[in-house]
Amino acid sequence: DLSYSTGGSYLGQEYETGGEYMEQYPGELETVYGSMTDETLAKLQARREARALDVTGKPRKAPVTGVPRVHRQPEAAAEPNWRYHEIEGEAARPLRTSATELLKTRGMRKQFSLSPAHIHFGRVQLGGRISKFAKLSNISPDLGRFFIRPPNHPLSLKYKPGALPAGMGVRLEVTFVADQPGDFCEEIIINTEHHHFVLTVSAKVVGEAGGEAG
């Protein structure tokens, strides 16, 4: 059954169900699935049948789509904050339980995650104003602290300051004011106790009245 897919993008186009995509590009999907073994195709077919049923084993009223786009955004790369480790590392009192100690032995030291890694405002008319959001999440079992350097004009940043409990996140509202025509690119530095994050921001400012924010 070549109509199976889990959702995603192929040839630059988003798709959720292979059946719809196969109607438009049958040759491409035949090439992709034709290179798979019978065992792989059988596993894909079993997964598709499993997705058609709910937890009680009854057919679903609505088909299951792919992973929401918000969960497929790339995360920003993290660079270790060596200065904090040198000054505060010995005095820190992290949560110590059997679960956290096991996580440490497996090398899980990341405290925060930032998504997306890049914000692109698209084409913005000269004099326009546009805002987009990023999210900083505490993925560690400990209370986490962060500090963000205020960006320079024409960028501004709004967020709720303060320490983040484990599993919580803060929404960062980045606002851009188009005051000069041309390409714009800037970085917002986010410092946490263990890592540094860089959120890159870009836009293209157009001077014509027909420019649009996207």
What's the short story on this structure?
InterPro entries: Ig-like_fold, SPAG17. The protein has 214 residues and is of the alpha+beta class.
**What is the CATH topology assignment of the largest domain?**
Immunoglobulin-like
CATH-wise, what's the superfamily of the largest domain? Immunoglobulins
Q: Stretches where pLDDT falls below 50 for ≥5 residues?
A: 1-23, 25-32, 210-214
Helix content: 10-25%
Largest sheet: 5 strands, mixed
Q: Given the helix and strand composition, which structural class is it?
A: alpha+beta
Distance between the termini: 39 Å
Under CATH at level 1, the class of the largest domain stands as: Mainly Beta
How many helices? The count is 5
Q: Number of domains in the coordinates?
A: 2
Query: Mean pLDDT, nearest integer?
Result: 73
Radius of gyration: 23 Å
Proportion of beta-strand residues:
25-35%
What CATH architecture of the largest domain would you give? Answer: Sandwich
| Elements, N to C (H/E) | EEHHHEHHEEEEEEEE
Shape label? extended
Would you report the number of β strands?
11
What key phrases describe this protein's structure?
214 residues; alpha+beta; Immunoglobulin-like; 4-stranded antiparallel sheet; 33% strand; disordered N terminus; disordered C terminus; SPAG17; Ig-like_fold
Give a verbal description of the structure.
The chain is α+β, with helices and mostly antiparallel strands and 214 residues long. It folds into 2 domains: 8-69, no CATH class; 78-206, Immunoglobulin-like (Sandwich). It is 21% helix and 33% strand. It contains 5 helices and 11 strands, in the order E-E-H-H-H-E-H-H-E-E-E-E-E-E-E-E. The chain has helices at 18-24, 26-34, 38-51, 82-88, 98-105; strands spanning 8-10, 13-15, 78-80, 112-115, 118-125, 129-138, 146-148, 155-158, 169-177, 182-192, 195-206. The protein is extended and about 55 Å long. Mean pLDDT is 73; it is low at 1-23, 25-32 and 210-214.
